[in-house]
Amino acid sequence: MGRKTKKMTDITKEQWDQVNEENRSLVIDFLEYCQTIDRSPETINGYTSDLHIAMVWLKDNMKNKEFYDINKRDVSKFQNWCIQNGLSSSRIRRLRSALSSLSNYIENMLDDSYPNFKNIINKIPAPPLTNIREKTIMSNEFIDKLLEDLLKENKIQQACFVAVLIASGMRKSEVVLCNMDWFFKNPIIREGMYITPEIRTKGKGIAGSRKTKFLIKEIVDKYLDLWKKERERLNIDNEALFVVKRNNKWERIKCSTVDSWMEKFTLMTGEDNYAHAYRHYSATWLKKNGVSIDKIRDFLGHKDSSTSEIYIDIGKEENLKGMLDFLKDGDING
Fold it and tell me: Which regions of the chain does DSSP assign to beta strands (E)?
C-alpha cells in the first residue's frame, strides 16, 4: 500500500508550554501578522503546525535557544533531524518555508529590535525533491467496484461523494462546499454538466480564488438521486450536500471527515485512497476519451495546460498506441 509517509507527532500543549516565552510570543505575533496581510486559514494553520515543531526542536535539542539567535549550523542540524525522522523532502521544504517566512517577518517588521538579524534559512540547501510515496492510479474497474461495494454496504452518502469527485475533478476542500440546491432546485445545466455558483478554490488570501465548477450529469445523477432519497429518510434538513451528525445535529462535513472516509476506502479496496487521486482519475478518464488538454484545463480550473498534463496518468506506451495508424492507409506523405 502506497501514499503513506511518516507523520510528525503532533505537538502537545505540554510540549508547547515548555518552549521559552520569547519564542512562543514570536510565533503568536507572527501568526497575528499573517492574518493582517490576508494569508489564508490553510496557510496560517500550516505555519502554526510547522513553527510549533521547530520551536519544540529548539527546546529539546538546542537548550531552548531563542529563534533570533539561530545560526546556519542550527538550521542544518534541524534539517538533518527532519530527514532522520523520515520526513519527505516536500515536507521539509514546507517547514523551511515557514521558518523563512518567520525570518522575513523579523527582518522586515522587527528590525528596530533586532537590527542584525538576517534570514539564513535558504543559506542551507534544501533536500532535492523526491517522491517517496507510491501514487495510486485508479482504473475504471477500481472505481466501479468501489461504488458497487459502497452501495452494497448502504454507504450511500460516501458513494455519492466518490461520484461527485470523479464527475467534477474537484478538490476535497471544494466538494465539502457543495449544496443540495445546486442540483435539485433550479440547477444550472449546460453541455451535460451541472455548473455550480462561484466557490472558494485554492488560492491566496482568506477569499482564495473564486471559480465555478463543473460536474458531469451522466456520472453523478444516479448517486445524487439515491442520496436525496436517503436524506429524506433520515430527515436531513441541512443545505450542505454532504453532512455528518454531531450532537444530534446535521452539519456540513469538513476535510477531516473526507480523510476518514479515504482511510475506510483504503481498508475496503486494499489500495491507498486519497481524495486527490480522484482528481487524477477524472483528468485521465477525459483524456482517454478524446477530450483536449485545453478543455481538461478549463474543467479542472487550472490556469495552464501544463498543470493539467501532470494529472493525466497515461504511460508512454499507452500514449503512443495508434500513433502510426496513418501508415495503414499506405500514404506515408499524408
Answer: 189-190, 193-195, 199-201, 209-211, 214-216, 243-246, 249-252
Question: What are the residue ranges spanned by the domains of the chain?
Answer: 13-123, 140-277
Nearest C-alpha neighbor of 72 from the set 121, 112, 34, 24: 121
Kindly tell me the burial class for residue 215, based on how many C-beta atoms sit within 10 Å of its own C-beta (0-12, 13-18, 19 or more). buried
How far apart are alpha carbons 269 and 138 in whole angstroms? Answer: 11
CATH topology of domain 13-123: DNA polymerase; domain 1 (1.10.150)
- State the burial class of residue 238 (Cβ atoms within 10 Å of its Cβ: 0-12, 13-18, 19+): middle
Please state, in angstroms and rounded to a whole number, the distance separating the CA atoms of residues 170 and 201.
9
Segment 249-294, tens digit of pLDDT: 999 999 889 999 999 999 999 988 999 999 999 999 999 898 999 9
Three-state DSSP state, 34: helix
CATH number assigned to the domain covering 140-277: 1.10.443.10
CA distance 193 to 267: 32
Kindly report whether the global pTM for this prediction surpasses the value 0.85: no
